[in-house]
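Go through this one:
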Amino acid sequence: MKQLKFFAVTLVLTVLGILLHAGEAKPVAGTVKSDDGIPIRYQVTGKGEPALVFVHGWCCDRTYWDQQVPHFSKNYKVVTIDLAGHGESGLARKEWTTQSFGQDVAVVVKKLDLKKVILLGHSMGGGVIAEATLLIPKRVIGLVGVDTFNTIERKFTREQIDQFLAPSRADFVKGTQNFIRAIMFYPDADPALVDKIANDMASAPPEVGLGAMEAIFNLDLPALLDKVKVPVYCVNADKFPIDIEAGKRHTVSFKVKIMPKVGHFLMMEDPKTFNRLLDETLKELTQTQ
């Protein structure tokens, strides 16, 4: 009798598990070569239009969107990408420019033949998705920056750039660790998450990290956004100020939602709030089309 009851309970739990997971989208990974021959790894989950293409930031990878993929793939086709030099993508690129990263995004969109796309970029990914839009303008209906486009008119001198990069040039692991821990989080941030992100980013190939950071500093973001002819929305943390008027001067439309009490990695620090705000942003953006 006990064995029969155990079997019955096990069967019920199994069936419940199947029912609960029956509607979940299964991720499919793929690889495509960028314009310079570098293999770019991506993952597709779900279906629906517009497609959402998530682009990570400096020295990160597509797993930084793991808290968003299950949520948004219920209603959209969700694509996450490893830019060249990051995650599972190739490392043989000679110059790590924002434009070349934009090409990585564009070739994935073309490979998947996505007709209607919203590009989402975290941090460095903001400039990347702007560059990608210029390559596939007929496919992109809007951009969503995630803690990016804060002070787009700010300029840096060569001396300021060299001063900032000096610790990472001397010791990339230590310099990157210190930079991430000192600037990117509030003091009460989850220590385990801080450790994970700091260790992840510090383990990036130094030539990629330093080259990409140079590209960030040297990017003429106002001139780039002047060429983008789709609405730009942002979901940003309250840790860093944002010059909304500057954003409006260089875009056809610029709107911002601010998340309180989170640092630079808001989509990981408070995914529930972030996903809600992004849901609202996507609805607003699609209603303008």
